[in-house]
Amino acid sequence: MKTTSRSVGSVLLVLLSLAFLSPIYLMLVNSFKDRAELYRNALALPSSFSFQYYGKAAEKMNFMTAFGNSLFITVISVLIVVVLASMTAWMFVRTDDRLSRFLFLLLVSTMLIPFQTLMMPLMQVMDWIRTNLHIPMLNTRGGLIYMNVGFHASMAVFLFHGFIKSVPVALEEAATLDGCSKFGLFWRIVFPLLKTITVTVAILDVIAMWNDYLLPSLTLSDKALRTIPLSTFYFFGEFTIQWNLAMAGLVLTIIPVVVFYLFAQKYIIKGIAAGAVK
Amino acid sequence: MKKVKTLSVLLTATAMAGVLGACGSNSGDNGNNVSSSASGAAPSASNASPSASGASSAAPEKMKKISLFQSKVEIAEPLEALAKTYQKETGNEVEVWGSAGDAYATQLQAKLAAGEGPTIFSVATGEEADKFKSYYADLSNEPYVKDIAPDMALKDGDKVVGVPYGVEGFGLVYNKSLVDPKDVTDLDSFTKTLEKLKADGKAGLSLSQEAYFLIGHIINTPFALQSDPQGFIDKLNKGEVKMADTKEFQEFAKFMEAIRADTPNPMEVKYDSQMGDFATGKTAMVHQGNWSYSMLADYGDLGFDVGMMPLPLAGNDKIAVGVASNWVVNAKADPDEIKAANAFLNWLFTSDSGKNAIVNEFKFIPAMTNIEASNLDPLSQIVYEATKSGNTIPWAMNYFPQGIIVNDLAPAAQEFFMNKNMTGEQFLQNLDAAWAKGAK
Amino acid sequence: MSTRYRKEKAWYALFTAPLMIVFATVVIIPFLIGIGYSFISWDGIPANPKVFVGLDNYTALLKDHRFLTSAWHTIEFTVLALVLVNVLGLAFSLLVTQKLRVSNVARTLFFMPNLIGGLILGYIWQFVFTDAFKSIGEHTGMDSIFYNWLIHPQTALFATVIVFAWQMAGYTMIIYVAGLQGIPDELIEAAKVDGAGRWHRLTRIVFPLLMPSFTICLFLTLSGAFKIFDVNLSLTKGGPNNATELFAMNIYNEIFGYGHYGLGQAKAIVFFLLVAIVTLTQVILTKKREVQY
Fold first, then answer.
1. What ipTM, to 2 d.p.?
2. Segment Disordered: which positions (chain B) (predicted)?
């Protein structure tokens, strides 16, 4: 009895996901069609599954270089965000004074500012840092990583903050009595308890940074520095878009993230998490 | 508590330093302007050019590496290849940047704000060229400038500041086996042709939902037919004239009524499907330019010939031809870079490799007297011939106030096509109202 | 006492200052500069003159009918999106945390839409709303529901809500899943032993314990909806007749379309203040309902 209801549930779930995914179906099938076929029937399966557009897209995008740039920028940015944001959020929760509350509110409220209104002043600030402090913020991977950290700080702190509040203080008090320094306390006792939320933050930030177009397009100019999304510009004319290459390029862009997600979600599966938070 | 203060002071200090710094950087920029713009950079650029042209005959001179940023994605790859050829021939480097077509202007603006501006960049003629004009180096004395076809150079006052990409033209692109130009000579015959084609189960004409293809290009005709289009636009901006009171626009409204009555709703048509319908013979005419041929080429053998004819509005018998984009040199760049930029442009417009790329790789209709067009596609051939014979009307839309086509005229046109009860007269009144808003 | 206190503060600075400094240079300072620009008339070209105009930009925006309409549409959009995104996200998270064989697959599938952005997204959905909807309407006879949604002002806004929800539901799902995983099994088991039904367990035990996740997801959806730009641009470009021109797009058009930099910034500031008041109230309200255990 129970197994039947389970299988019915499974079937329903699969159907629901498929309906949810129909737009992705459109993206996939149309990455195999030329303009004439795309025009004739966008909804149907392609007449042939030749991967020529994938090859062409990868070649035009200079895929391996772009992949390397994206990987480097995303991994370093996410690592820094996770480390700094978890520390900051923990301090804010455990030192619940006026300053903490103010800074927390400041972080959170800036999540409401549309990026479009910040971009021009941001460029000017980066220019100022470059001319006066001689740190090359623009047209460098490091500069983009720095800005990535700044823009993703708010949400990461916000998520960690919410989660840390449900972590019992008792554990930490015991460790403090054992003479643990704050640093050791955080990294040895607290951080391991944050695995679920850390993975969540990492997933969300990886998606956002990996797919980001606007910020990298403003800061990176040289061809050698282009990330994967930037490299797809070849397919997007102002009016004439090469849809097959664009869609093939997009599929190539998102495959690494899907692989990462499949890998990462193991860490937020019940059991590991439940063992940690009690 | 004291430490809290120290910390917050520290943070505020950092913040303040940044704020002051940013303001400082602006004034710094302005300081640079005084020293290096018109007075500084331009003369040095013109001084540089003779040596640059001299260099082309002797051993190539080692120049500073420059960057080039431009909006036309279609030529991005050939341009990168050309930069490689340039390096091979002269030993000098050009870094070609890239941007998706519709993001270009914003990125250019942001990069200029960051002091990261490219050495050479492109600007669309008209409002965009006007917007960035404080950045243009004076090219008047550069050797390649003398080859620009008459009236085609981008000018700021008397100074030549930009070199055209090439010319482009638009009008009614038609299927020669479905339409005879003799049946499309005025409003009456135009309407009859649309009706007849509709009865045959064809779409007589198709506009499409993109702002320029919906209204921007087609409304160019009544403007271009004014005796002084630029003067007319100025008066319109000041509210001294109204479209609703002007004869050519009244006829334009009738054309639009006919299009709405007898052709598919353009709001449901995208550029892609517009050209697809045309390529497969479902649509007899599209209001498009020679650039659309690249779309048609993707359909292989069409089975019919294509032509381009004028929109026969108020007796108009000419297609609209203009310069869409221009190369300009960033006056705020370092003088050595400006020199290198001029050397590159000179090479582009005078060397065989450069000229060949413009015609055969970029597939532009050249706007230079020293470059012969060859192997043009049928639509470009028509535009080229019209240009040579001077049988053209101008792109008056280049003088429209900034952003008005996309932000004001397009919404008014959308409303017209959605609301079948709106008369052409009301449409003109709406356009006038939209213009008043957009021109403020 | 005082050395210990000082030490605490040093630790505090060590833990928080690095992030706050980066954050300040990247977000706060540009925002402050932006506030400065809202009192200035400027076209956004660095070399062009900036003229101080006081509060002119602010008085101008109050008379800007298009901005006010756009603000109203944004509110309408946000409310609808908030409900749809969170209902879907929560439902998905409950589904994929059931111990079904396909849960892992479904979890990945629901999350996929997040990865499709920009112009492609708009292109695909235009097909759904124009071509697919039309052919469904013609084949089923339900053409009063299935027609081209993008050319009618009201349905075009709904279409934008649907696309946004499609993208965002998987996003909130991830956060709800994290929250659900944090609920101790013992609590649920104990309730089962006490004879609590499925619905009862959900509303009395799971939802209250999920309050922190609600706070987070509501806020994220809210901020995402207020700032929506990509979906807006690629799906409708604000049309028809500006009926779907949402707030961020209105500002973008003001700044980069018309070249009214100061006015665009003033709009951003005003809207930011309004939204901040609303959302912070929301955060404070939901936070009060969170339970500690």
1. 0.88
2. 28-57
